[in-house]
Amino acid sequence: MILPSLGCIQKSMQAFTPAVVGTFHIMMGLFNIGVGPGRTSTHPGDFNDLGAAYWLGSVFIITGIFSLLAGWFPSCCLTGFAVSMNIICAVFAIVGLVLYFMDLGDTDLLWMCEHGLVKADLHVDSCIEVALLAQRLLTFVDMTFIVLTVLLLLLCVCFAVLAIKALMGQMKEY
Questions:
Q1: Measured between alpha carbons, how far is 148 from 88 in angstroms, rounded to an integer?
Q2: pLDDT score of 26 more than 90
Q3: Does the predicted TM-score (pTM) go above 0.85?
Q4: What's the CA gap between 43 and 30, in Å, rounded?
Q5: Which of 163, 1, 139 shows the shortest CA–CA distance to 89?
Q6: Distance between alpha carbon 14 and the CA centroid of its chain, in Å?
Q7: Surface-to-core class of residue 70, CB atoms within 10 Å of its CB (0-12 exposed, 13-18 middle, 19+ buried)
Q8: Domain layout of the chain by residue ranges
Q9: Which end of the chain offers a freer environment for a tag, N or C, measured as fewer CB atoms within 10 Å?
Q10: What is the pLDDT of residues 51-99, one digit of tens each?
């Protein structure tokens, strides 16, 4: 969708379509809410224990909706609010990165195979294999979310900079 050049949205914003930014925000929010709650909690205060998937996903989705609205109905007020939401989203993305890195550094799931939790010694080897597989999957999910969150952070910053530039250009006309 190409933005109409109405209100405070200038040609610099047309090249960086808010629809792309908004769609990525919403997808990232849905990924967080969809994949995050299924994670294994390894200790108190980790990603799953904090419920981070829900509040990160919610912020990402709300920011995506306002970014889309700013593209569909360009106005100074809505664009300014979308900029504010993208700045807030960038802060939450940084918090998410910290949580993903903390979770990545502490993905040991071998505690599940301790002798008190496994009924017979015959199943210990199988338990270790499954725990290592789950550990690799959790590491892969964390690395994927780190890459996507860095991309989301860059999109937030780019959107905010270009939208502020467009808003400042509009203010100079008055």
A1: 17
A2: yes
A3: no
A4: 25
A5: 163
A6: 24
A7: buried
A8: 17-105+145-173
A9: C
A10: 778 888 999 999 999 999 988 887 888 888 999 999 999 999 999 898 8
